[in-house]
Records
---
Amino acid sequence: MNLRRAATTTAALSLVLAGAACANDDPDMPMMDDMSGMDGMDGMDGMAMGDPGATPADEVDGDVTSGEFSVLDTAPPGSDGAAGQAWLAQNDDGTTVTIRLTGLAPDTAYMAHLHAEACASDNGGPHFMFDLDGSEMPPNEVHLAFTADDDGAGEVTVTNEQRVGDGAPSVVIHPTDAMDNRLACADFS
């Protein structure tokens, strides 16, 4: 399944939490088939990038936090209209994250990550990692891949058996073709 088809299947955004299986047999789970040639995406081929059958985080029983996305000063030109909300739910089953966005460039690929600091601190600081000495790839990091739909909007939910605790206070979105440009950030509160 290619990235565009995955986004279409999920009606917008695909999100990955660290700990999600890097290989999976679920035909409905969006996969990243060919990330080579995209800045910072080498080695991500075949990783699960969303869970279209998951219950949205704002409907999960447990400790639910949410935040509004704000466009960052490092956003690429034309990103001023990006807006949306993110939810992070934690319970005995692990972690569930849902994001909903509008105002993105239509049919454009993005990558998002849970971050280790609040948005006001260096635009989210470094990526959240379950093990600070571990890999910079899933399942140790929480990667979120998505493609905006024809209207520049979308939604996706993923679940993870691990709890992020309070170590992931924000989520940051980057354009896939310019990973150094942090487009928008949402603090979970």
---
Amino acid sequence: MTTTIAKIRIWDLPTRLFHWTLVICITGSFISVKVGGLWMDWHVRFGLITLWLIIFRLIWGVAGSRYARFNQFVRSPRTVWNYLRGRIPHIAGHNPLGAYSVIALLLSIGFQAFSGLFANDDVLTAGPLASLDESWSATLTGLHKLNEWVLIGLVSLHIAAILWYRIKRRKNLVAAMIHGNAQMNALTGQSVPGAQDSWKMRLKALALATAAGLAVWWLTTLAPAADSFY
């Protein structure tokens, strides 16, 4: 007898676009800062876009679709422990342990983008808010460099987890973040609600993303006309 595998939408389009745009920005930021020189202009652009993405994701984590909301996937430490011991079956969306990884990444990436606004390399580039307070700028510049290693570690763990799920659990998390769907037989229960991914929800995301973008643009206007951003 052939078993029909039902699929449901887990990741809405705004969440998927956020994820892959963030991947591009983090990769671009890392490469451009290592190359240096005139490539720092691209580092600035990637940093500002990253800040915009993080602001949007924080808002979307409250006002977005079902599985994008923090209150849906952030669980207690006891729930994480029970999940690791196999007492909780597969869950739609982020699993309890993966949720903590998501929060750690958002915090680290968010701090990197925020501190970049104040950072100053004393050579070519300075953040739009670096001139507000020299000591504060020096402190955040140091933390900006230190957090780079934290971010590298978190991204490495994230990639390792994806590979582990692919090899050991036979779950393609990358594909799910591309098409947004999950197989019904890999989820808990017989009836799992899908994410709201209508055009109304997407227009809502566009409005929120526009507001976040305007906020970041306003920050850049605080920089003196002759200064660079980061």
---
Amino acid sequence: MNVVERLSANWRESGIESGDLILLHANIKSLYMKYRKLDYNLTLDEIIDSFLKAVGSNGGIVFPAFNYDYSLEKPFDMRVTPSGMGSLSEAARKRAGKGRTGHPFYSFSCLGRYPCQLNGLINTDAFGCGSPFDIIHQIGGKIAVLALDDQHSMTYYHYAEQLEGVQHRFSKTFLGTHIDLEGRKKERSFTMYVRDIDAGVVTDVNSMGDLLWRENLYKGCRFNEGNKLRTIPVSDLVTATSTVIKAGRANGLLYRIENT
């Protein structure tokens, strides 16, 4: 069994199945160091290939390629703006080519068999209807997280918060210079559901992650145990988050208030 097959078997033990559409958040440092101790230089392509093998020929992997530099002075170029989410995400962006979405803060790179509507999608609202978050939810995708806690990975909570119209966040508009996959350049406005900083809102979601474990919604391993990969269907995460919000429990599970 080669390294791609070995890793793929690990990912399947944590809930990835053939035909899945996976949104993958990953920190590969510990994985890389594990194989270095075995005198093997694991490559980024081998890691990507292991996830693609886990989902099979009918599945796809969506990688966050988030970048927060958007402004009139710093254009977002769908063709070349790098991912700010680490080396694996950047390798996937380069490998995906035109398989990238175009929101300047929350863009994604897509590999394998993924929904065609993600190809070149320019959604003006980060989390709203027609966004990659919405598309992956509607199609029945899963989230996979490797070696990261919820605080540093689970952006999907904000999608659920927007669905429920929480009071601790609001929609904010950002104007900047945007360049699409065909090289067309224009000033464009995009929106994002942001936390209310003036009210002292601080994102704090690890307790929500603990709740998902207690309710047996996460499958696999905690971020610092075993193969370090956990998975959850998007629909389960959204339902659990919405239940918490409707019960008035968001403060303490999804955010906290700090004195300003």
